[in-house]
Amino acid sequence: MTVTDDDGAVDTETQSVTVTAVTPDTTLINSGMSDAWFDPTTDGQGFFIIVWENSNLMYLSWFTFDTERPAEDVTAIFGGPGQRWVTALGAYEGDTATLDVFLSTGGVLDSTEPPVVTDQTPIGTIIIQWTSCNAGTLTYSLASLGLSGSIPIERIVTDNVPACEAGQVAP
Q1: CA atoms of 128 and 138, how far apart (whole Å)
Q2: How far apart are CA 65 and CA 128, in angstroms?
């Protein structure tokens, strides 16, 4: 190794250098997180998550059901009468995203009438903390509805795991 010190002189010294890969303490959110996620214990429910690194934003669609099954005589032409779509949007930092939750109501399949209504006032918050490129915990608080909980999530398929891992940088 050649070193130039403060006096401008060049000094030569032999040194042994060991380079060790440093793993980040947290799983950093990146576009490789964009995927379909679910809790395998709650069949038929799940999340589509999209990460936009350039704007530091995350979008989530939550496909779930009402808190109680509708009465047997309640019918729907398309899908189940108790199905719910919830959306969320917010910023992220490190391994954690904090999203505002919105609920859309009304609307009819492939029609502009009646119009879909999405209240611009969030109905709650979702916080997602990733523990790896394949797993995390989603915590929701829908205070206006009296609902809260925590859901372990994992990818439905692992195709994007290498992209996520490539986005992990050492501190």
Answers
A1: 4
A2: 20
Q: Which two three-digit tokens encode residue 14?
A: 């032999």
pLDDT tens digits along 105-149: 777 778 787 777 777 889 999 999 999 999 999 999 998 889 999
Tell me the sheet residues that pair with 85.
Answer: 63
Residue 13 token pair: 């010294």
Between the alpha carbon of residue 89 and those of residues 10, 16, 45, 168, the distances in Å are: 56, 49, 19, 23
Question: Are 29 and 92 a contacting pair, CB within 8 Å?
Answer: yes
pLDDT tens, residue by residue, 16-43: 655 444 455 789 999 999 999 999 999 8
Q: What sign results for the dihedral spanned by CA atoms 41, 42, 45, 49?
A: negative
What single-letter DSSP state applies at residue 42? S
| Each residue's pLDDT tens digit, 40-49 | 999 888 999 9
Q: How far is CA 44 from CA 62, 81, 111, 168, in A?
A: 11, 14, 25, 31
In our burial notation (b when 16+ CB lie closer than 10 A, e otherwise), range 56-73 reads eebbbebebeeeeeeeee
